[in-house]
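Long-time lurker. I teach an intro course on protein structure, and each term I like to show students one example going from raw sequence to a predicted 3D structure in token notation. This year I'd like something fresh instead of my usual example. Would anyone be willing to generate the tokens for the chain below so I can use it in lecture? Attribution to the forum is fine with me.
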Amino acid sequence: MSLDLEWFWAFLVAFVRASGLALVAPVFGSRTVPAPIRVGLSATIALALAPLIQPYTGTPPTDWVPLIIRLVGEAVIGLMMGYGVSMIIGAAVMAGEVLDATMGFNLMQVLNPVSTFPTTLLAQFHYMLAMTLFAMVNGHHWLLLALARSFETGATLGNLSAWSDASLTTAAQLGGEVMMLCVQIAAPAGGVLLVVDGAMAAVSRAVPQIPVWLIGMPAKIAVGVVALGASLPGLLGISIRMTDLSVRYLETLLRLLGV
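-- Reply from a regular --
Happy to contribute to a lecture. Here you go:
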């Protein structure tokens, strides 16, 4: 009976942590994935991991307060793993927002089917493309591997106070890397659009009678779309760097957990 109870406790711990991951992680946390599918996926992962992590989870607490604190800690760890990777994927959304503002698409707000906030046209396109490339380079496999390895430690919510300095440093480095990815994604098309803006400004200065901004906007959009299409092959290399950054973030988080 003791063995069955310890197995159920290992399953419950794995289920809560996997649920936190599936709630916000890319691919798994998409709004297009129904909630029963996420719950079933979390339960399947927990069933697979329960026999392996049983030596690390130990016996369940006998009081309600430690039990709840432990489960909350498991959910927080899962959320941290998934949300950090989602921030990295969000670099593509930031790049799309920049290009939308440059091309004049920022007034067309559409509801992103895989996010909870309204995004513009190119931001939604870049997000969907980044999600596809992330899955193609097996980024979700690394995410599941990190989830499995995260149980190789006894870290709980009570250890979070010791993470303050290291976690702030990690968050600052992650923010800088995300901004660099945003610039790299938006730079090709953004550079061409900047040249077009300069040319339009020069024409307007030379011949003020011509309504260059009214006439030039369709041309600017056309040039922007062509430049964006030409820059798409380079996004494959950026997606690989995005996956590498996700792996490094997960490795840093595992070191904070003591793995």
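Some talking points for your students: The chain has eight helices and two strands. The beta strands are 109-111, 118-120.
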